[in-house]
Design a protein that fits this description.
By secondary structure, this protein is of the alpha+beta class. It contains two helices and seven strands, in the order αβββαββββ. The strands form two sheets. The chain has a four-stranded antiparallel β-sheet with strand order 4-3-6-7. Strands 1-2-5 form a three-stranded mixed β-sheet, with no helix packed on it. The longest helix is centred in the first third of the chain and has 27 residues. It is elongated, with a radius of gyration of 20 Å. The chain binds copper (II) ion.
Length: 126
């Protein structure tokens, strides 16, 4: 009986700690406005430089949806300014919040010529 009480006490502590860790992780997740005050626009490619991103952090893309969009491309798409893979997720709200996955995350503007104008970012999330 004592053993059972002890086991359930230990389980309660483990559960409590897990919940707190989860909470801590949520609190630690950061939100970044891409391009800062200028927003998602031309020549934004250097914006990630010197910043530290974690998996679960949110990027907020602010732009005029009549002019721009955001496409979550792969490495090839980023390098060649093409919608790759062809079914790459596209965002068009003008205020898109996108959660980073671990590893490289690539975004371009899908409007012809804009990615070539530096409207592209590569973000590595730890
Ligand atoms: Cu654009």
């Amino acid at each position: 009986m004592t053993q059972m009480v002890r086991t359930s006490a230990i389980l309660s502590v483990i559960l409590l700690l897990s919940v707190q860790l989860l909470h801590l992780k949520m609190v630690l997740a950061a939100t970044f406005v891409v391009g800062d005050a200028a927003g998602w626009t031309f020549n934004v490619a250097a914006w990630p430089n010197g910043k530290h991103f974690k998996a679960g952090d949110q990027l907020v893309f602010k732009y005029d949806p009549n002019v721009h969009n955001v496409v979550a491309v792969n490495r090839n798409g980023y390098d060649s300014c093409a919608i790759l893979p062809p079914n790459a997720p596209e965002f068009t709200s003008g205020h898109d919040q996108i959660k980073l996955k671990a590893g490289p995350n690539y975004f371009i503007c899908g409007v012809p010529g804009h990615c070539e104008g530096g409207m592209k970012i590569a973000v590595i999330a730890k």
